[in-house]
Amino acid sequence: MEHFGLSHILYEPDKYSPDTLDLVVDEEAREYWLNTCEKLVDKYVNFALTKKEDPTVEIRVLKFKTCYIEALKELRINPLAQGQLTIRLLLDINETCLRSQGFFDLWKEQKKYENEAALSALAARIAEIDALPDERQKWTEICKGVVAGNMFDWGAQAVTSILDCGLYVALEKIQKRPWLFDGLEKWIQKLENTVHHCAAVFVDNSGVDIVLGILPFVRALLLRGTSVILCANEWPALNDVTFVELEETLQHASLICPVIAASLAAGNLVVRSNGQRGPCLDLRTISVGLSTEMKKRGVDLIVLEGMGRALHTNFNARLSVDALKLAVVKNAWLAQRLGGPLFSVIFIYEDKPVET
């Protein structure tokens, strides 16, 4: 199978493997993630059962639970039952079981509510950043906002207590600097010496994450003369923003922020589907249209945001352009495995490889 566009996204495409952990060979990780996914099922069930207006919901949600638990049981007995075993696969099976029972977008109303709530705070957040005295301080605050925004993830058990809170509670919760992976100074130094031509930003969650975390970051890039492709999921998964939802959110944001409005009108800011159906990112399966556009626009910066895109997948990926990998580790076991506490910050900046 030909993988469209890998040559201009990835360094050594033939060596690319999206998954960080191989749960076939890593027994400790396999046991942990199978148990974690099994426990998460009840979270989905309880959330679905809040939709009391649907008379079929109870039977459908029971069928979903049976479908997923049976799949997990099979993988316990035979880890190679699906040909491989990764966190990406476990999350994809979950989505497949949900869809098989008609749950195509369980979090749809919740995402809409969270996007609207976050949009009401966008003007104040932008004003707060603009009031800072210099570019270094602005970028530090913007980047802290991105990682704090990434806390708002309905797929993570550890953050349940802050999901109804705002960005400032999250800013207090995340790891204080120096972060577990702290490339912030390296990133700011890069900005002082380079203006990127075009950035492809692979985004994560709805609400605070996309609106108060990512949009100020995107606005700051646009102000520097960098055009931006926002890459969002094709299909709903968890509370990840889809490309259709993101287009609508940007229209609302353009009424609040003149920079976003002007950039949308000029075509310097666009939203595209990344072709993905789950919360992880396999760069071999991004949509042909996105791959073609990235090449045409001369993307020289890729931003991967969130645990699914920058930690469960692509953590070890070497890209052929400058890359930012950003996430908060919202899982105690994984944080410990990486050598840090819960809510450790991953902020990795990697220069494009030097041609030899």
CATH superfamily of the largest domain: Uncharacterised protein PF01937, DUF89, domain 3
Q: State the strand order across the main sheet.
A: 1-7-6-5-2-3-4
Helicity, as a percent range: 40-55%
Overall average residue pLDDT: 94
Run of helices and strands: HHHHHHHHEHEHEHHEHEHEHE
CATH architectural label of the largest domain: 3-Layer(aba) Sandwich
Computed over alpha carbons, the radius of gyration is 20 Å
List low-confidence stretches: none
CATH class of the largest domain: Alpha Beta
How does the major sheet shape up? 7 strands, mixed
The total domain count is 2
Individual helix count: 15
CATH topology of the largest domain: Rossmann fold
Distance between the termini: 29 Å
Secondary-structure-based class equals alpha/beta
In short:
This protein is of the alpha/beta class and 356 residues long. The protein has helices at residues 6-9, 27-48, 57-77, 87-100, 108-119, 122-130, 135-149, 167-173, 184-193, 208-223, 243-256, 258-266, 288-297, 307-310, 332-338, and strands spanning 181-182, 198-202, 227-232, 269-273, 301-305, 322-329, 344-350.
